[in-house]
Design a protein that fits this description.
single chain; about 160 residues; alpha/beta
Length: about 160
């Protein structure tokens, strides 16, 4: 587990870009934490790092937004507003076994449907330290994601 502090949206986005470099089809990235703490900003960085040119928007009311045109497709999901708290009707298994990168906000609502390996990223606001100050915690689950975190955050950084 790695915890970092960021002081701007651009810095948050840059970490998304760095992680995107190592992503492969079927990867699952979980984004949890405070409202307005940078989950969509981070996803914009992932998209940019994947070469996706489209504007990235929060999937809050559409539940899933699909972005093509980069090195890999990006599937950005917001599970918070599912009617019954279940991802069954979304076909999550098809996404998880598909050709793209899966980014899931509010993953705790589908914890029983997640694959065994993923990268969980938790965003926390600390407005007392500044309106853009965030603490971001990277929790890799599985060997591949541990290696990615180690590459993005080499020991000593």
């Amino acid at each position: 587990m790695i915890t970092i502090n960021v002081e701007s949206p651009e810095e948050t986005q840059s970490y998304g870009e760095k992680i995107a470099e190592f992503l492969e089809p079927k990867d699952v990235i979980l984004l949890d934490g405070d409202l307005g703490a940078g989950k969509t900003t981070f996803t914009k960085g992932l998209a940019k790092g994947l070469g996706i040119k489209r504007n990235i928007k929060s999937p809050t009311f559409t539940i899933i937004r699909e972005y093509q045109g980069g090195r890999l497709p990006l599937y950005h999901m917001d599970i918070y507003r599912l009617d019954d708290g279940s991802g069954d009707e979304l076909g999550l298994e098809e996404y998880f076994n598909g050709d793209g990168v899966n980014v899931i906000e509010w993953s705790e609502f589908i914890s029983d449907q997640l694959p065994s390996d993923y990268l969980k990223i938790i965003f926390r606001r600390d407005d007392e330290k500044g309106t853009d100050f965030r603490t971001i915690q990277f929790e890799p689950k599985g060997t591949r994601f541990k290696k990615i975190v180690d590459k993005v955050f080499p020991q000593g950084d």
